[in-house]
Amino acid sequence: MQADILLGLQWGDEGKGKVVDFLAPQYQVVARFQGGPNAGHTLEFDGAKYVLHQIPSGIFHQESMNVIGNGVVLDVIVFRKEIHALNRNIEDIRKNLLISKKTQLIIPTHRVLDAASEASKGKDKIGSTLKGIGPAYMDKIGRNGLRVGDILQADFKEKYNKLLQKHLNLLKQYNYTDYDLPALEKDFFDAIEFIKTFQLADTEYFVNEALASGKTLLAEGAQGSLLDIDFGSYPFVTSSNTSAAGASTGLGLAPNKIGKVMGIFKAYCTRVGSGPFPTEQDNDLGEQIRKEGREFGATTGRPRRCGWLDLPALRYAIMISGVTELFMMKADVLSILDEVKVCTHYQLSDGTITDKMPYCLISEPVTPIYQTFKGWKTDLTSKRNVQDLPQTFLEYIEFVERTLGVPITLVSVGPDRTQTILRK
Length: 424
Ligand code: GDP
Ligand code: IMO
Ligand code: MG
What we know:
alpha/beta; ten-stranded mixed sheet; four-stranded mixed sheet; binds 6-O-phosphoryl inosine monophosphate
């Protein structure tokens, strides 16, 4: 078998949690391959709502094995809290969850360093979720990190103290003192004991053996392609590869083991944190979309910036990840509008018109060129079949699909698992 990947194609929060939970019955393994507690994936079913940060979104399906891959950065304190919030028998969860021994640990001072780094940047701050993501990946790449497998070794405390010392020196340079180390450490070491009771494994063997024995696997992305460390709006990005390649390195899946690449996008755009956003509507319209779409961060509660769908950016994300099918989310939110716009091209400062992403949207700001569509003005949330969708909305879908050259096979019309329409 080949592994399928599900990725966000915008700036995150496209609805990945909802869709992974919807698709999970088709997959025997669901695996997270990058990111960490900066992610907030919302699932709604049977009248209940859950937000997952570290745990893969297949966890509510008893038949799926869930894997936290080596490409992830794991905050054991967040993990423990999240396990308890699932409100399920922990023994059952233990059976269905594997954590890679090669997953990097977020230690408390990674979070403190994140805060110190952001504070030092002033108005140029990234708008990080302050979960310690950047510092943890810096230590990984700098070959200073601690991995989950290390907690089983006798010299773990020694390794921890070495890394801690490095962090304390850095914090001194930042002149940052706003933290209570003994309290943070107590929580951390308690949570370390907690994760020792889970299955810690060489998950690269597990996923490859699962595929070899004919099992199906879904790799669940976190964040979105425009936050990718290489291809996103650098430096306003996260610190991992959020595009399809991240699934190879983050799980140990060779490129020839990848099958479908499902790309998910909202019928409009949102962004949380700083950085360029060409189609942003920083006005009443953006406020209307935010209110109707309940666009507030699932991890930090921050209001999300809202704007029109950006096709040059989507086309770029599709190219980088080789997306084979598209899922359109949250079109129900736009039902309140008389007209809906889509950015088809950018105009550069010298007047050139292009449908490509410039090198840097900060030094080369663009003016979006829009095509306007009649709004569908119909409540979509109760629709369950393509035949029931209004013609105006179908025209919108077909235009986007034609322009991007990739089929839109799933349309989501509400947050609940059941509010999902398969198109082809
Ligand atoms: P993720 O990070 O990609 O998993 O997305 P988030 O969970 O951060 O944000 C998506 C939000 O939109 C969540 O509150 C979902 O419950 C909600 N949602 C998902 N799909 C739809 C949809 O089709 N319509 C509406 N109205 N809400 C949706
Ligand atoms: P999910 O998986 C939306 C953004 C932050 C910030 C930048 C860097 O729920 O889609 P970081 O904490 O990674 O150093 O922050 O990336 N960001 C997200 N935005 N959804 C996410 O995850 C995000 N994870 C990080 O707001 O701008
Ligand atoms: Mg989210």
